[in-house]
Amino acid sequence: MEIEKQVQTDSDVDDKTALINEKQQPSDTDYSSDSNDLTTHIDDIVDSIDIGLFHYIITIASGLGFGGCTLFYQTISFIVVAACDLDINRSNKHWLSLAFIIGSVIGSGISGRLTDTYGRRKMFVISLFINLICMLACAFAYNYAMLVIMTGFNGCAYGGIATAAHSYVLEFFPRRSRGRAGAVLSSFLTLENLYNSAIALPLLPYPFYYAIGSIYFTSWRLYILISAIPALLSFCTLLFMPNSIRFVLAKNDKKAFRDVLNKIDQINSCFSTSRTSHDKVLYSKITTLDLQQNDIHSKIRKEERRNFADDIRELMKQPWRRRFILLSIVWIGYSIADHGFTIWLPTVMASYEGGKTCWHGYNKTENIPWNTTHLYNGVNSDCKSGDSLKAIILDILIGNLFSLPVTIFCFLLINRVGRKVLYIILASISGFCILMILLLDNRLSVMIIACIFTAITTNAWIPCKIWTTELFRTEFRSTVVGLLSIIAALFLPDTSNSDIR
């Protein structure tokens, strides 16, 4: 709550935060990561840097990468009903989501600690590279087994991106702007889900086959390649971006600190011919900071000896332990609802398109044996094409369109009502939608509720991710996000093979 109060009003931050005091001698400032005033010192420096072109580029580039990798989960849900040439059926279609879940558990566990040790940007770029390679391999998968294996590796990349993205972006922004910056970053989930559905609509319902060696290049393979474009743009941009300014300050890396500031100034001044005298003086003071080495030498050596066990011991102390337990419950519950039902929706809509109703409904096939029912609908397969697949994609596209006003709503209220309150509101609506999907028993009603669910569920991650990121210290922030991702993934249900009957 204290963090929420700090970001709620710009004026409070400006009044209470001393940016760079002219009377303060730079050599008297201790920026070591063990200093009790580390957070205050870092916030003072970050608050002194005006938001400019650099911040817009870093947010857009990171958002493209974060959303681009995350939308692969929606891609899976489309593939299981569209990739008819891979012989996906009810006995094996859950392999894709299961491989992705296992990969995300492994990736989150490994990358969380590595992100805090070697830098947010480095792990972000490496994870994006792995994601792009896996997407290319998925598009040219020889058979279903290869597609499943590549999806597992893609899950590892997703774990790395999920643990690094928010920490990387938010650590460039002053306290007064972190809430909205995080909201913009998370909004790329909505935008790229919309992009994903939009490219699926003209591609997947109209299959084509072009022989390339031993495989047939089809519409779903082209769909995967096009869906990888946002991640490719992000990768190319982040190659030229610096590491997080808070990370290099926490590591007491003087050279990297000045390199980051030079890069920020270089990009921000691209469309500005001159800076005000105040900006020049401020920049001069920051870039000439002499991080005191002698007084903090022992503390730096202590920080260099920190390992994963040290972070865990620190995490088990108050108030970190209480926060971690609370957020573990939040992440487990919402991940089950979000990921479980998101990957299930195309199957649900495909079932309704096939003439079936929910488990409590009654229809003309009620007394027909289970095997006979599925024989009528395509030999134990949910594969769809043509108008039926087009209707499924259109339903999800409408839901993603409804997500846009909800995203704007989150952006406007994230600093007013607070992260926790906004998350509770959105999560409650998502839970109500899930209940209605289970209770309602006709296609139109389920379509309407599914659209509302799609609009709400993605946006609830906006306050949740920002809330999580801001509650922990820079030194083990990404480690915590990685641990939470592992815990949440361990409880993820595999709903891709669930029948609505």
From TrEMBL:
Single GO term (MF): transmembrane transporter activity
UniProt xrefs under InterPro entries: MFS, MFS_dom, MFS_trans_sf
Keywords, ordered alphabetically: Membrane, Transmembrane, Transmembrane helix, Transport
Cellular compartments annotated: Membrane
Keyword Transport attributed: yes
Keyword hit for Ion transport: no
PROSITE patterns in UniProt: MFS
Major location category of this protein: membrane
Residue spans crossing the bilayer: 53-74, 94-111, 123-142, 148-173, 222-241, 324-345, 391-414, 421-440, 446-464, 476-493
GO cellular component labels: membrane
Membrane topology per record: Multi-pass membrane protein
Lineage: superkingdom: Eukaryota
SUPFAM superfamilies per UniProt: MFS general substrate transporter
Pfam families: MFS_1
UniProt domain Major facilitator superfamily (MFS) profile: residue ranges: 36-501
PANTHER family per record: SYNAPTIC VESICLE GLYCOPROTEIN 2 (PTHR23511:SF34)
UniProt name for this protein: Major facilitator superfamily (MFS) profile domain-containing protein
